Amino acid sequence: MSTATNGRGSMEASAGGTQQSMDSALLPSAKPVQLVDPEGCHTHDDRYPLPDGELLLSAYGHLVAGRRINDQANALVRQGRLAVYPSSHGQEACQVAAAVVLAGEDWLFPTYRDTVAVITRGIDPLQVFSLLRGDWHGGYDPHEHRVAPQATPLATQLLHAVGVGHAAKLRGESTVVLAMCGDGATSEGDFHEAMNFAAVFHVPVVFLIQNNEFAISVPLDHQTVAPSLAHKAIGYGMPGERVDGNDLAALLAVLGAAVDRARDGGGPSLIEAHTYRMHAHTNADDATRYRSADDVERWVPRDPILRMRTYLRGLTLLTDEGEHALSDAADSIAATIRGGLNTEAEVDPAQLFEYVYAEKTSQLREQAEQLREELARDAEAESAGAGDQAEGELR
Amino acid sequence: MTQTTEAPPAGSPHRSRPVPVKAASTFAQALNAALADAMEADPTVLMFGEDVGVLGGVFRITDGLTARFGEERCFDTPLAEAGIVGMAVGMAMNGMRPVVEMQFDAFAYPAFEQVVSHVAKMRNRTRGAVHLPIVIRIPYAGGIGGVEHHCDSSEAYYAHTPGLTVLAPATVRDAYFLLREAIASPDPVVFLEPKKLYWSREDVDLAELRRTFEDGQAPRRIGRAVVARAGTDATLISYGPSVPTALAAAAAAAEEGRSIEVIDLRSIVPFDDETVCESVRRTGRAVVVAEAPGFASVASEIVARVQERCFHSLAAPVLRVTGFDIPYPSPKLEHFYLPSVDRILDAVDDLQWED
Ligand SMILES: Cc1ncc(C[n+]2csc(CCOP(=O)(O)OP(=O)(O)O)c2C)c(N)n1
To answer: B122 and A165: CB-CB below 8 Å?
Structure first.
């Protein structure tokens, strides 16, 4: 068996010293990587240079828009326009960074909570919301922007990401895949299988865990007692890294490096972003049952927008004028979403039978015809009823 | 719809196996040839699973594929069924046609979540934008003296899931042609391989089958049942491992003067109502024969469909001969469980004959 030269992070080594350095190369940094602290000051990290101002500024724009999208979506649930919304309020830096570090040819595998990441990647928000609005289980073409459908069954999409990455490798493409999941999802069997497959097949996949401390009501220490989620990587033979999940600059640097590494043939890696879910799990959840207002308050000063704003303003990269422009842009996205969701989408019952098989089976053809007849009868009865009523009014 | 009446497969568990005269091929060889021919014809076809590489699969269905096509085309994965199926989803999303092997029926259950939630639904979720040409091969059902968890009949789980095509061949020819069709299908296919038929033989030339398939000469089999034995008095409806038993029962009934038609479904989903109903309307009597437990089964579904559609042609209620509603029994007890020729003949006797 070959050693680590095969690039698979093999644990075999001739001397104990080599073994140790190889192990520690896979271990996450002792403290989460941070490049801009909550006060908005640059904190130095030997391994990760601060991304350049242009990139930070444009990503900051997405951050502002992301917050507005979360707020707008929550409002639409209250108005009954969306069935449900799993908000990423407070986690927007992870959302934006995940989308921004990818090239056009790369793939993103998001979960139900990653709506902002999907929109940041460029997909029409109205198409994205068709899932939560209830028009269809997924509203966009995954191939168009290389974004998989948002996955609801936990951790299952991580394996699909490995498959896309493996196929890309076999086809000689330089595609990188970034797959997202939550802290709770790391307890699922599919999480383990995906890590292991990615490492064994040396697939260009970056796994991003958004550790927001809760899986619905269950805190992280009920999911794992590992030193960190990033530590899990070493067990699969891939590097793990911890990053401040509310620090846009650090996320861009760490995820960017992992994507570059994967593209250069360096294989998979696991990144744990430590953040906090400021809102309830969804609008249906009562978060006061499992956490206190104080807990939530503690995270307010660590807000990802606040600190990046201070940092950018300090460098005069962000001016009053610039802020207004970003705010206007975010408003206009929110207005588009509001406008689009305030009109009922037409739903065509005939579509029910359309996308089950490439060709409808005779059973589906029969059932489609049955529904068509039923609806035609209903419509006839309704128009007859309306006729009776009109006559009644005349009399 | 035209039907071809094909020769009943030789070798049923209830008759002594005829000695093959000339170059006969086994069911297993037909599957192996179908895989090799499909991989030869289309470079995007890949085969992976547990022990499918150097070993060639525990039933040797993938024998020689790694040597011939390389490790990138036929490879072993870590031991993880959800991983295998989940990775196949991603590979299919990215231009490949993965064929995966689940080592045994009951070991496919860890992957059930991936099959039901993703494999079956991707086309629907994406309104047709993403389709998954995946074949999930499962050595299935009993009759081989296997230990626990090696003999399940799991077809109802898959058949109940819209979006999946579910196939169960019973003859060497169908094994070859159905697997080629499955691999070519734009939809995901659960391909159930009756383990006890792996070693059954037919006098077929596999190279000839390949030419027939590739010339487009083979009649389509997905969604098309076949009359495996023609008859006029009653219809036995069966698929997969139970077809040889049904044929043996029909042969025995013929000696008693009853002409029994046997239908081999081959394709459970889509289901060929036309062939089944045409036969039952003609004979007026039907028995469904299947190895799985009968409650809430594919057999139940067939009975319901036939009663709904052929009620006025029926001279008797449609009956079922199935496994009992118990976990698949241990080897020494399985012969009590499996539908037998006698049990089928008893059911035929119960079809309210006038004589
Ligand atoms: C396989 C599976 N089990 C249970 C659920 C129900 N469920 C939805 S979200 C959730 C919590 C997930 O927590 P986490 O992975 O930390 O992600 P977060 O919601 O915090 O983003 C649960 C239990 C599910 N979606 N899938």
So the answer is: no
Residues in Cβ contact with A83 at an 8 Å cutoff, skipping those fewer than 6 apart? A77, A132, A133, A134
Tell me if A212 CB under 6 Å of ligand 1. yes
- pLDDT tens digit sequence for A310-327: 999 999 999 999 999 999
DSSP summary character for residue A357: S
Phi, psi of A377 (to 5 degrees): -60, -45
A197 touches B83 (CB < 8 A): yes
Task: Tell me which residue in A148, A167, A196 faces B91 most closely, judged by beta carbons.
Answer: A167
* Residue for token pair 């309104």: B127
pLDDT tens sequence across B10-27: 333 333 444 444 569 999
Least CA distance to B185: which residue of chain A? A358
Chain B, window 223-282: residues with a beta carbon less than 8 angstroms from a chain A beta carbon: 223, 269-271, 273-274
Q: Which atom from ligand 1 is nearest to the alpha carbon of A212? A: 20
The full 3-state SS of chain B, as one line of letters, equals CCCCCCCCCCCCCCCCCCCCCCCCEEHHHHHHHHHHHHHHHCCCEEEEECCCCCCCCCCCCCCCHHHHHCCCCEEECCCCHHHHHHHHHHHHHCCCEEEEECCCHHHHHHHHHHHHHHHCCHHHHCCCCCCCCCEEEEEECCCCCCCCCCCCCCHHHHHCCCCCEEECCCCHHHHHHHHHHHHHCCCCEEEEEEHHHCCCEECCCHHHHHHHHHCCCCCCCCCCCEEEECCCCEEEEECHHHHHHHHHHHHHHHHCCCCEEEEECCEEECCCHHHHHHHHHHHCCEEEEEEEECCCCHHHHHHHHHHHHHHHHCCCCCEEEEECCCCCCCCCCHHHHCCCHHHHHHHHHCCCCCC
Query: A256: how many CB neighbours lie within 10 A of its CB?
Result: 18
ipTM of the complex: 0.82
Length of chain A, in residues: 395
For residues A155-168, give the mean pLDDT: 98
Instruction: Please indicate whether residue A182, judged by its CB atom, sits closer than 6 Å to ligand 1.
Output: yes
Among residues A173, A55, A48, A202, which one has the least CA distance to residue A104?
Answer: A173
Nearest Cα residue to A115 out of A279, A269, A268: A279
B70: left (phi over 0), alpha (psi -120 to 50) or beta: left
Dig out the tokens for B168 from the structure.
Answer: 């169960």
CA distances from B323 to A155, B91, B336, B338 (A): 37, 37, 9, 6
**Type and span of the H or E element at A244:** strand A240-244
Q: Let me know if A290 is a catalytic residue.
A: yes
Closest CA to B135 of B88, B72, B75, B68: B88
Q: How far is the CA of A292 from the centre of ligand 1 (A)?
A: 21
A277 is known as an active-site residue = yes
Main-chain dihedrals φ then ψ at residue B291, nearest 5 degrees: -85, -25
A83-87, A180-184, A229-233, B60-64: which range is least confident on average? A83-87
Over the stretch A245-264, which tens digit does the pLDDT of each residue have? 999 999 999 999 999 999 99
B312 Cβ contact list (under 8 Å, min separation 6): none
Q: Is the pLDDT of residue B222 over 50?
A: yes
Contact (CB, 8 A) for A3 and A13:
yes
Q: Which residue has the tokens 């027939």?
A: B212
Residues of A in contact with B190 (CB under 8 A): none
A170: pLDDT confidence band, cut at 50, 70 and 90? very high
Helix axes A248-263, A92-100, angle to 10 degrees: 30
Q: Which residues 333-352 of A are in CB contact (within 8 Å) with B?
A: 351
Q: How far is the CA of A183 from the centre of ligand 1 (A)?
A: 9
